[in-house]
Task: inverse folding
């Protein structure tokens, strides 16, 4: 049986232009999270959107707990999407865990990638002190995962305001809480576990595609130390500090987010 | 904006034949639950499958908490699907709460319906003693809904074996548990509330479409008394007792389920 990758991952292709730009959503989100960014690129780029299996309107039947027990499973799907669309030298914009998924994919097949833009990336969320500060104790992550298991709805309403920041704009938190709760809790929990326990530090030195690291302010998921670590260990990388607060600048500050991506692409 | 009903409800049309048969899934399920039944009808019928909004691969963006705060919202969607497919005199097979959804739709527009087959139906789940026995105390339902809110994953693994029966066939319980957990917990909880607190007893006398009531054995959701009540209050109804145990005979005993539906359709 051949898999229809474009259906499986609910792939959408918009806009026109000879240069393709792929936007990849993060944990607990889907392609709709890019809706404020996409209009800024549609005139000059061919825009590709998709949902990871288990997220958004992907075909949930393809969810495979073994395949998706590591970020490599998701990276494989990114490559399959790029192959199905016959992409070469695309720009890949990944939010959060998608930054590392894109990087892993680029290590495997760098010809698909011209540039990578990482939005709020982290190669490892759990501290590995004294050499590495990720922002989380292992115990914090275990508690979060246990809360997902025991009280999924409560977990989403607990986490959303912490990671969104921008508390004066309640609609942002509401959207995120709703998004966290929009899919299969078992799948969400496994994706959370795979994300928050991932460690891509060793792979950083194998990456070669030029990369922009967009570092948010007051980001409880990916603190400034993590952005600096990434920049130091990732060849051909540029680090850009944003004024946008929280882990979802594409929702909270889409203008700044779009501008930094465009500025980078024009400068390279 | 016109709504593409066939996309919204992930409508699939299979098989051939001049007579159309619509299969409507119940709470916590989707159209895939009919997969053992459909092959038995595809040669002689045009088979229509769909997912209610919020279930399966429906377009979750169309979920509207107000519209779906009563079964009438779902009945409206059934009619919209039938209209979009230009159906007349179709056979409607509804599992569980879909039996009542189909009946409500048929009261509004009977011309779409030739026959209705109700699989494990109940016009009211909560007891209204001494005149009506539905099988549940109101307190049972409230506890179930609270459990969904507080521990969604725990709720699904608690409920699945109770309603599936057939404990020696663990794969059935596993599938149901997975299905219960396959969508947005907020939506699932509202659908549960709307289902388990529904009361369609007054509407029974307005229904006129000839109906087969398939009564399961050892069904903790729809006990025998409920089937008998329905038969007594529903004009043109036939009551058929099944040997199939539990609330999901289309999964656990697809041969018997298909045979009773076929026998009924051939006899009328």
Result:
């Amino acid at each position: 049986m051949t898999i229809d990758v474009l259906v499986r991952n609910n792939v959408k292709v918009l806009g026109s232009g000879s240069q393709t730009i792929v936007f990849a959503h993060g944990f607990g989100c889907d392609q709709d999270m890019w809706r404020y960014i996409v209009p800024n690129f549609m005139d000059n780029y061919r825009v590709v959107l998709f949902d990871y299996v288990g997220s958004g309107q992907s075909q949930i039947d393809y969810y495979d707990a073994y395949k998706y027990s590591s970020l490599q499973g998701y990276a494989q799907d990114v490559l399959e999407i790029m192959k199905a669309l016959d992409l070469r030298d695309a720009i890949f914009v990944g939010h959060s865990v998608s930054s590392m998924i894109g990087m892993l994919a680029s290590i495997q097949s760098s010809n698909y990638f011209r540039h990578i833009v990482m939005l709020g990336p982290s190669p490892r969320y759990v501290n590995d002190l004294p050499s590495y500060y990720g922002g989380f104790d292992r115990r914090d992550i275990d508690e979060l995962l246990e809360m997902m298991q025991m009280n999924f709805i409560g977990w989403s309403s607990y986490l959303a305001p912490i990671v969104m920041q921008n508390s004066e704009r309640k609609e942002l938190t509401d959207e995120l809480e709703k998004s966290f709760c929009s899919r299969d809790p078992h799948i969400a929990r496994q994706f959370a576990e795979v994300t928050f326990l991932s460690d891509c530090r060793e792979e950083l030195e194998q990456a070669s595609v030029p990369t922009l690291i967009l570092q948010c302010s007051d980001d409880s998921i990916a603190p400034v130390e993590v952005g600096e670590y990434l920049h130091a260990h990732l060849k051909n990388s540029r680090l850009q500090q944003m004024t946008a607060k929280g882990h979802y600048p594409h929702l909270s500050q889409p203008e700044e987010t779009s501008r930094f991506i465009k500025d980078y692409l024009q400068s390279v």
The two ends of chain B are 42 Å apart (CA to CA).
